[in-house]
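Quick one: Cdp-glycerol:poly(Glycerophosphate) glycerophosphotransferase from Fictibacillus macauensis ZFHKF-1, structure tokens please.
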Amino acid sequence: MQAEPNVQIQDGYAPTKRRKCIFHSMQCTQHEMNLKYLLKYNEQFHEPLTGHLLFTERASGREWEIPFTILEYNDQYYILESTLPLSEAGKGLVWDVYLIIKADDETNNDDDDDDSDEGESAEDEASDEQDENEADQEPDETDEDTGLLEKKYRMRTKHQYLELGAVKDPESGRIITPYTTNKGNLSFKIHESGPVVKVEDVSMDKRGNIVLNGFFFSPFERENTVLEKSIVLIGPEGTEEQTLPFEVTMREDLLPYYQKSQPFRAHGFTVSFGKDVLGQLESTQPQTYRLYFKWEDEDTPGPDEGDLMMPLQLISFKKQVNKHSILNANGKKKVTLTSRKKTKSLVIKSAPYSFIADKKAQVKRTLMKIKRSKRTKNLYKKIFFLAGFLPAKKKLVMFESFLGKQYSCNPRAIYEYLKENRPDLKLVWSVDGRSVKKFEEAGIPYSRRFSISWLFNMARAGYWVTNSRMPLWIPKAKHTIYFQTWHGTPLKRLAADMDQVHMPGTNTQKYKKNFHKEASKWDYLISPNAYSTEIFQRAFNFHKEVVEVGYPRNDVLYTKNNEADITALKQKLKLPADKKIILYAPTWRDDQFYGKGRYKFELELDLHRLKDKFGEDYVIVLRMHYLVAENFDLSPYEGFAYDFSFHGDINELYLVSDVMITDYSSVFFDYANLKRPMIFFVYDIESYRDKLRGFYFDFEKVAPGPLVKTTDEVIQAIEKFESDGFAIHSEIFDSFYERFCYLENGQSSQKAVQKVF
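--- reply ---
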């Protein structure tokens, strides 16, 4: 093969065995973005080379395919080009860039190396679903139409100054900024404001003198010409902001990185300070101070109105900074200049200094580093496997709920039944380190997840009882009975029934394969009804025994559904005993978010109208999904609205409520056991309907209560239930109850225990 040398490749910027897809350059016009990139040659690629560039929206999982053109190629690499409309790119929040190439069935070993995103885009909740030992590389998928393998490559980049290539989408007015992630991948962030501040060099000597060199840049004229600029050190609330002197220089060396349409240029800065600033920091207790570049608008009234502040961040490729100095000013203290692991933002930490305490902390950090090393983790897994051959503790039962984060759900109900009725068993909870305090305060026996004691407990236990998947690497000994209790009646499609999986760090084929591998370890699987049994067996590829007895967690909805217990619960929750209670428990919206893992919820229910109408006779309890990032200000509704979003046991809220308002949340399956009225506030049903293709049944027809779109309709529905004495007269509800709740009568825990133990 031949290639004409039209595109110049810098030394070190060609594809390698590990980094197979490398970004080369970007050129933008007013409406389009042109990307050039290189792909390592593989003789097994299907000829002519086919595939596409794939943009994946990090928060929503939305995918955008762009064709490519081959500019040049030789026996080492291809040079490819793709053209993207700016208007489409501007519709996202953060785009990660991949290349999909079709290949024959047998590919060479070059493609066995890591070339994935390494999980950078994972959201908290989704990452919890991933196996902790899954390889970083995404496996190949097969194109059903062609029968060819589709190989997926994360686009890498070595360019440090990509942010200077920011462009403005003419339609939305938003800024599209390319950047190099901390792991050396190419991504694009779309945002309203465009300042960029980066630190390139950092130094701190033993006397505490700090020097920072970097550059600042903004694609907005006002931020370059009108706003005053300063670098500030900001401490905890109550401490005074300190302005640091800095020098500004022109950076002609950055010219190659600008887009032709970009009229503004980056300026370099140098900031120096030392004991005169650090000596004033707090010395009696640990404090953290942050460094910001500040644009100040002195003409806008109000304190700091219109100001912009950007944290000083290291360029992604720079290593972690951790320098310190011992100062004897305003008390002896240790001052540390460090960069945060993920954001690379620079912070200064000041803490009282003690030689002995400092050495103890160093030892602790060293031990933690050893503990978290790959070698230690591999050794831990081998010991876990070998521990399974030790004598079994057949009376030991290990419980876990939602990856060790909660004391809840079906494992809790089974635990409480066994505690009362099987004193011969030893009951221990597997608990995430961040949740230990809750178990200690409640006096519940636990073993810290992934500790040495946990390892031997899990390996030798007679039973595991959990409601979610365990890490795939955990081996189950032959003497262990694995009781999977799951955590809900399926509304959305599960595992093998899913057409596509958009979870970060995996793909459809890999997700299903790993799910089925985990499910093959289960000995028993609980089911709330025949409907769920059929789905579970198919979706989980589960062929062992299904314990179809209802959900143990719903027993309390029968055993505690009496006047005495409900009155006691209202007293415990500090809710008025003489008023009706409305429970509002909606789900979150996939397309409403602030950023990665940070969802928001716009409260469409008009609390003013509800308070005006029902304030004398009712109160409303809000139970938001834990993914929602809002903190609702309910002060205008004091005495009427209560926020119980972080209350541990939602069953208590079910029991005290007289009517529930929800939307598409699966809470209605459980609440139906109480045979109390439900209202489905589906104000966005038209837009949400398109997302219902992954549901198992027609929600609009099966929902066991009225569907309403406005607060006025909510009021009318409550008044209708009130006039009926809160009794339900509905064939749809009766049919729903008979289909989903017929097994639950307060004895599911007993039946499950009798079957499995």
